[in-house]
């Protein structure tokens, strides 16, 4: 009996989800941004031979353009951004006032101190100068290969594709997601397409696990970074 219970426990662990955390695949509800043109109804030829059936042709185009077809996206994304700013401001203010008569007060002050000069009673000046310069740069590179599924055929003949890829290596889980709109003639004979040819593309690469957790600061460090004013 104990052996049976132990076997059931081990079997349960073997059937358990191997994801580090519960994984919920992203699904994008793509809406065609342009209203399709209304096409005039075409009369039927009344023939049992249909020109839109691939089986009726000796040579057919096998590109993945129908919903449910699979094609491969080569993700080749490169980003290089640089930005530099410089600011310089200067301000000088001077103020001189000559008080020669103020309700008879100046005469009283001269009687007390004959050396008082009314032209120098108020004399102020200020100068402000601000110089600032900054420069920032960032480079990114992402290369991967992700199979995608044709999810939707658009009215103009283009297709909306979407795909996921999850890789688990040494307790580190990597997630690839890509979606976008592809033109059929950009798909090569091997049903392969580069990410640069995708319109309205969304590309995500995330990871979770021991390495990802160690790269982020702890709770205490984030708390003190939030309250530290300098």
UniProtKB/TrEMBL annotation:
- Provide the topology term for how it sits in the membrane: Lipid-anchor
Statement: the UniProt record of this protein carries the keyword Lipoprotein? yes
GO MF, one annotated term: cytoskeletal motor activity
InterPro entries per UniProt: Flag_Lring (IPR000527)
Source organism, top-level taxon: Bacteria
Give the matching PROSITE patterns. Answer: PROKAR_LIPOPROTEIN
Statement: the UniProt record of this protein carries the keyword Membrane: yes
Q: Which Gene Ontology biological process is one annotated for this entry? A: bacterial-type flagellum-dependent cell motility
The places in or outside the cell where this protein is found are: Cell outer membrane; Bacterial flagellum basal body
UniProtKB keywords: Bacterial flagellum, Cell outer membrane, Cell projection, Cilium, Flagellum, Lipoprotein, Membrane, Signal
This protein's GO CC annotations:
bacterial-type flagellum basal body, distal rod, L ring; cell outer membrane
In UniProt terms, what function does this protein have?
Answer: Assembles around the rod to form the L-ring and probably protects the motor/basal body from shearing forces during rotation.
Which family is this protein grouped under? Answer: Belongs to the FlgH family.
Q: How does it assemble?
A: The basal body constitutes a major portion of the flagellar organelle and consists of four rings (L,P,S, and M) mounted on a central rod.
The protein's name is Flagellar L-ring protein
Q: From which lineage does this chain's organism come? A: Bacteria, Deltaproteobacteria, Bradymonadales, Microvenatoraceae, Microvenator
Q: Gene of origin?
A: flgH
């Amino acid at each position: 009996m104990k052996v049976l219970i132990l076997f059931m426990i081990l079997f349960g662990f073997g059937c358990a989800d191997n994801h580090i955390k519960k994984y919920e695949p992203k699904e994008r509800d793509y809406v065609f941004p342009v209203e399709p043109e209304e096409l005039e109804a075409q009369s039927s030829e009344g023939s049992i031979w249909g020109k839109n059936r691939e089986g009726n042709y000796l040579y057919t185009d096998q590109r993945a353009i129908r919903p449910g077809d699979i094609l491969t996206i080569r993700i080749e994304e490169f980003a290089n951004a640089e930005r530099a700013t410089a600011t310089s401001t200067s301000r000088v203010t001077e103020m001189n006032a000559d008080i020669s008569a103020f309700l008879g007060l100046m005469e009283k002050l001269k009687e007390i101190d004959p050396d008082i000069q009314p032209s120098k009673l108020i004399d102020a000046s200020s100068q402000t100068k601000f110089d600032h310069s900054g420069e920032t740069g960032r480079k990114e590179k992402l290369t991967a290969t992700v199979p995608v599924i044709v999810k939707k055929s658009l009215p103009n003949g283009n297709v909306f594709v979407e795909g996921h890829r999850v890789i688990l290596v040494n307790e580190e889980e990597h997630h690839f997601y890509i979606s976008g709109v592809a033109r059929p003639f950009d798909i090569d004979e091997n049903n392969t397409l580069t990410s640069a040819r995708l319109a309205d593309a969304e590309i995500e690469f995330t990871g979770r696990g021991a390495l990802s957790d160690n790269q982020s600061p702890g709770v205490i460090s984030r708390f003190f970074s939030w309250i530290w004013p300098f």
